[in-house]
Amino acid sequence: MNPLVLVHGFMGGSAQWELQRKAFEQHSNVIAVDLPGFGRNNDAPALSSIPDMADWVIAHLDAQGVGQFDLIGHSMGGMIVQQMAHHVPDRIDRLILYSTGAIGVLPGRFETIEESKQRGLDDGIPKTARRIAATWFLNGSAATEYEACATIAQQTAPEAFTGGLDAMQSWSGADHLAAIQAQTLVLWGDGDRTYPWSQIERLWASIPDAQLAVLPNCAHAVHLEKPFLFNQIVLDYLTRR
């Protein structure tokens, strides 16, 4: 199999994929990135546009000598991988767009981008990280993996917090969906509070021959709420030829 590249979302990090790493590494080389300003890379200068983040991931792969690869993007990471599919379409074999959308400013988001910015400034990163991470789980802060997820979110640098929000606010990949060449799976939890069905349906309907997987009784962090089912679906998709 091709190397499998995992791109986390806003206030995420590579450590969020620990429940996937062992399963995926049985089939391919796994490359889980930490975007600048997030996770284990939180001391790197933050970026404030989705195209710049996409170029950063591509340069990271170039530095490791990676040519062809499979690609998963979660949430904001899903925007980044859509942009990568526009920048280097010939290098991506299979693409998984997970709990994401084709536009950065989402109608019906749990709060507006501006509200998130202001609350982040008012409350600080640690408190904001815990509050936002709770929205990713169907059971909120009572979820089994909430504490681990919130701890990773708290590693976000302040500049990456505002830069990520600015990046999402100014981005749309809607015009490029029909040009995506990679075989694509759209994956979503039916209780997602961040990305409503209308956004998922748009990806599914607009990307040529896209496939769809909807997982029941989970929210934005499907890979943490139902890791076994998530892993099985992803591996089935990546290994089916």
TrEMBL record:
It comes from the Bacteria. GO terms for molecular function: hydrolase activity. Keywords: Hydrolase. Its EC number is 3.7.1.14. The keyword Acyltransferase does not apply. This is 2-hydroxy-6-oxononadienedioate/2-hydroxy-6-oxononatrienedioate hydrolase. Residues 2-227 form the AB hydrolase-1 domain. It comes from Roseobacter fucihabitans.
